[in-house]
Amino acid sequence: MGTHVDDATPAFVATRAEALRRLDAFLPRAGRAYAEARNTDGGPEAERSVSALSPYLRYRLLSEREVIAGALDRHGAEADKFVSEVLWRSYFKGCLELRPAIWARFLAERDAGRDAVRRSGGLARAVAAAEEGRTGIAGFDDWAQELAAFGYLHNHARMWFASIWIFTLRLPWALGADFFLRHLVDADPASNTLSWRWVAGLHTPGKTYLATPDNIARHTGGRFHPRGLATQATALVEAPLPAIRPLAPQPPVPPGRALLLLHPEDFGAERSIVPGVDVVGVLAATGGTDDWPWGAAARRFVESAAEDAAARAEGSQGGGADVTEGLGAEAVLAAAAAAGATTVVAPEAPVGPVSDALGDLAGPLTAAGMTLVRVRRPWDDALWRHATKGFFPFRERSRAVLGADGLGDG
Ligand SMILES: Cc1cc2nc3c(=O)[nH]c(=O)nc-3n(C[C@H](O)[C@H](O)[C@H](O)COP(=O)(O)OP(=O)(O)OC[C@H]3O[C@@H](n4cnc5c(N)ncnc54)[C@H](O)[C@@H]3O)c2cc1C
Question: Which cofactors is this protein said to need (predicted)?
């Protein structure tokens, strides 16, 4: 393997220019070629069958809308598979937004798992062997090392890895999800947590994903044919989740001069946040404190992405732009005062640590006479509410919504 994350992650250069370059290079393959080859994982050195756009979508250097529009313009109905995959992202974001208890449960189970590791030498050794790729299971060990080296895994490798972690190694699923969050550049509270739950049989109760040696061999071009994998995947069980929390109505944005606050859930600096709002300054916040659940590779990406967002905002929004570490009230208030803003407007952050940090910011801002308004992007506002059941009804609703108005600049 050889390549360490410090050398490998610059492969994901965190600028919108790079995101657009990659999108442009991928679009010719977003039609039939993607549909036919997307399940193949030739390994980190092989030409990719997929876009590897996930870090750019995750932090919104690219919007879902523009990626989907690009694929449809180029391939029409042949882009269907690719469009569906991008919609999985919006679906998972909506699912978590409507069911915040899932994120809270993950954090609680992760912490309980970490406690269990501290108490049990056997579990500690088993988790360490899995994370370091020393289990002796062909493929699994390679993916563990590939993840640590590159901050990225092909979707199929993520599915196989999660399945083997849960059903063959019988390790706590939340520790596996945590391992992914600490290494993926695209580390996402919704896509990661819900995908692990989907494999475990918690997302669609009773329906699990079982990794098989033949499937792995076929889709890795014969690179791996592991032995000793579980032949059954019995679904994990949990207490029922609380009822869905409907999306709150969008708050009105007070008239006046606004500071636009960008953050790791949305570095879309060039998209208007609310038509008619007078943006007089921009602040791009990085991924803050050490207890945020993602690791060094994601953190570095986010820091560069914040710099890039601020630089782009200088040209596309009103006023000056700056970068701040984390979402501390002092820095936000200082930036608002410097810009002469009377309101702070932020694109909505769906459930996760950024949303929590925005929640913590509201009180101190109000105490200082400043309002924080969180505004859902039109894409999110239109789609998240439909993530009430499974993916397929969501996709149908999304197509109807997108077909009706295309959602402007998203
Ligand atoms: C266990 C597990 C954990 C995962 N954790 C994450 C995560 O933390 N962050 C993350 O962005 N994705 C996650 N995924 C989803 C998916 O694996 C990645 O989005 C995808 O592999 C990224 O590669 P790509 O950009 O080449 O995808 P492409 O196949 O080119 O798809 C284009 C885009 O569609 C979205 N997408 C594709 N497949 C999925 C999917 N199954 N679920 C949600 N969105 C999808 C991504 O934004 C992706 O960039 C996870 C999947 C599994 C099985």
Answer: FAD
CA dist 14 and 298 (Å) reads: 10
Q: Is residue 9 part of a domain?
A: yes
What gap in Å lies between CA 273 and CA 270, rounded to an integer? Answer: 9
The SS3 of residue 28 is helix
Question: Residue 241 falls within a domain, yes or no?
Answer: no
How many whole angstroms from 158 Cα to the centroid of ligand 1? 9
Where does the pLDDT of residue 7 fall: very low under 50, low under 70, confident under 90, or very high at 90 and above? very low
Q: Whose C-alpha lies nearest to ligand 1, atom 34?
A: 86
Q: pLDDT per residue over 349-359, tens digit each? A: 999 999 999 99
Instruction: Give helix 173-183 / helix 140-150 axis angle, nearest 10°.
Output: 40
Domain that holds residue 315: 257-375
248 found inside a domain: no
Residue 167 carries which DSSP code?
I
Q: Ligand 1, residues 89, 391, 392: which to mutate, most atoms within 8 A of Cβ?
A: 89
Residues 181 and 283 in one domain: no
Ligand 1 shell residues, CB under 6 Å: 38, 50-54, 57-58, 85-86, 88-89, 92, 154-155, 158-159, 162, 180, 184, 186-188, 191-192, 195-196, 199
| Distance from the alpha carbon of residue 191 to the mean position of ligand 1, in angstroms | 7
Q: Which of 172, 202, 219 is the last residue of a domain?
A: 219
